[in-house]
Amino acid sequence: MTSLKIKKRPFIIAEIGNNHEGSFRLAKKLILKAADAGVDAVKFQTFVTEDFINTDNLERYKRYKKFQLSKNEFKKLYKITKKKKLKFISTPLDLKSADFLGPLVDFFKISSGDNNFYQLIDKVLSFRKPTIISTGFLNLLEIKRLVKFIKIKKFPLKKLSLLHCVSDYPVKKEEANLNSIKLLKDKFNLKIGYSDHTVGIDSALIASIMGAEIIEKHFTLDKNFSSFRDHQLSADPEEMKKLVEKIEEYNLMMGKYEKKISRGEKKNLQTSRRSIYAKKPILKNKYFLKTDLSILRPGKGYEPKQLKFLLNKRSKKNYKKNELI
Hints:
Layout: E1 11-17, H1 24-37, E2 41-46, H2 58-67, H3 71-83, E3 87-92, H4 95-101, E4 107-110, H5 118-125, E5 131-134, H6 140-152, E6 160-165, H7 179-187, E7 191-196, H8 202-209, E8 214-218, H9 237-254, H10 263-272, E9 275-278, E10 293-296, H11 307-310
Helix pairs in contact: 1-3, 1-9, 8-9
């Protein structure tokens, strides 16, 4: 299989999000652990809390205020990410953060919660950087409207990716609806991926087999780190490493869209195929009869389908029992 031109495996994103809980030290450690696991990119959320959450929603406001990293910290995280040769992605949750991230990120990400926030999407598109949009909370018609809006903005579609996503935390297995990946691939001539909110890595692995070109999985150091919900549905370093290894293994096994005899098959071909042999001694000039012939392994001569061409023809030589015709 390794001799085949295998398609590139899915692009794997470790979604750190807010699992650093406002600690720069933890954010840095998460990047390093993600790099060790073999992912292609890390992703954060960038926001000014006042421009993101109503202050009347006090408990939620306080939590995200605590999680908010400074611009300087994000710049440092970007440098750490690049040193580890990973792509740096962030989700802006307000217009100011989008402006800040414009010169910084390799990719933008629009969250499911903001895939109808067209003012923010318009701002992100203006930077003409690769942009990934999660499709949670949207039905097919709404996704078509979103893509139409993006086309009107003349954003290069080769830079646009859509992720199938179910925006529940965690997603029940029976609601993961991974066939939506195939639907999106059939309906849109775009790069299609999967943002996984299920517990465990099974859904992400299945998505990779179904043709998802991007796999995004939440990432944490410890599933029981705190009561913040994202930790429980995240992959820890061991799981993330296993996810990357399995996706690479599955991708290798998937091979190409073709049907050819493999190198391994070729070396087994002769011993596994059959040929026509003398079932008993056959004299020269005697007519070949069906009762004189056997179809046996190995396949060194006439194939079984050629038996009809031998019947009622004269033998050109004497054959011993079990001799290849």
